[in-house]
Structures are given as C-alpha cells and as structure tokens.
Write a structure and sequence with these properties.
Shape: globular
Strand order of the largest sheet: 3-6-5-4
Order of helices and strands: EEHEHEHHHHHEE
Number of domains: 1
Number of helices: 7
Radius of gyration: 17 Å
Oligomer: single chain
Strand content: 5-15%
Distance between the termini: 36 Å
C-alpha cells in the first residue's frame, strides 16, 4: 500500500479495500452466465434481455424510446456524481478525479501484467459483436474511483459498486430502461431504483 502521488494534499494510495477489490476482480469469471437465468436481489430493479437483442442494443449510439444506452447511462451516472462532489467537496474535484483516473490507467489500462484488460475487452467485443468498447475496464476503474472518493465524501452517490454483483455472477449490463434519468442534468443524486431498471444479459 504505497503512496503513488499527492493530490492537493491528498495522498493517493491503493487502500486495503481497493487492493482487495483488485484481487477479487482478477477471479471473476466474466460472461460465463450470459444467456442464463438471473434471480439475485441487487440494488436496482432489472429485466433480462433476449439474446437476439443484446448486440443490437449494445451497439446503439443513441437512446431509443425508453431505452438508455450503456454509454449514456455511464455518462449520466458520472455527471451526477460530479455534480454532487463539486458541491460537497471543497477541493478541486475534477482535477483530482482526472489525476486519479490517470494513475489507474497507467497501472491497468494497457498493462497486461496484473489484469489483461486488452484481452478481456477484446473477448467482450467478439462475444457480443461490438466494436471499440472498453466497458469492462470502465466498470473496474470506476469502482476504484468510488472506493477512493468515499473516504473524503462518504455520502457520495454510488453506482458502480451497486452493479458489480451482476458482473461477478457472469452477466453483463446492456443498458437502462427509463429515460427520466437524463432529464435533470444538474441532479446531484445517484441513480435511484425508482427511476427505471437495468437491462441485463
């Protein structure tokens, strides 16, 4: 647990909790239950997607009716977290976020020594017939970011940790049903279960 950097007085360390998460992630058997039933209780409501629609919906570049693409779901989540942090964290949140993300990227994004995300994301692209997607790495990095920032703003909205169980159980998220999540771009609240449901496979 060494000091990696210093962000405006904040020492950047991979805490025990973060290191435990990294080790846990290494053991996940990704995608091995896609297409199978799923009945575990998680933070959000969810609906299982038919196999024939998975690739099509993962490749949507725009929302369609009440369906929110996975990328737009992530954008909305990150914007809400950012809105909350800017109001509740007196230090330069965006600079800190970007710097910490850079540190994680340097260690993991294209470095195959610890976790081979190049292979993982390539398997994801081939398995679900999508191009240029780094969704698995995005979820990994965002979990680390949530673990880091909750030490400074414990009430920060959490999303990525709430969806991790889906991936741990060998499924993926295809998107979100319920466009109301995008209506208020200034919202400082996390995505609530009453706003819609996850679409998983």
């Amino acid at each position: 647990m060494g000091v990696l950097d210093n962000l405006l007085g904040r020492k950047i360390v991979f805490s025990d909790e973060m290191n435990e998460f990294i080790e846990m992630f290494k053991k996940i058997e990704l995608f091995n239950n896609c297409g199978k039933s799923y009945s575990k209780k998680i933070f959000y409501n969810y609906e299982l997607e038919n196999e024939k629609n998975v690739s099509k919906k993962l490749n949507y570049i725009r929302n369609y009716k009440e369906f929110v693409t996975l990328e737009n779901l992530f954008i909305t989540v990150d914007r809400r977290i950012g809105n909350y942090q800017k109001e509740n964290d007196e230090r330069d949140f965006q600079w800190t976020w970007n710097k910490f993300a850079d540190i994680v990227n340097k260690r993991f994004m294209n470095n195959t020594n610890e976790i081979n995300f190049i292979k993982i994301d390539n398997n994801y692209s081939v398995r679900f017939n999508v191009k240029n997607k780094r969704n698995i790495y995005k979820i990994f990095r965002s979990n680390l970011i949530e673990l880091f920032f909750k030490n400074y703003t414990p009430n920060m909205p959490i999303f990525y940790n709430n969806i991790l169980e889906i991936y741990k159980n060998g499924h993926i998220i295809v998107g979100w049903e319920g466009k109301t999540i995008e209506n208020d771009i200034w919202s400082k609240e996390g995505i609530k279960s009453t706003e819609g449901k996850l679409i998983i496979y």
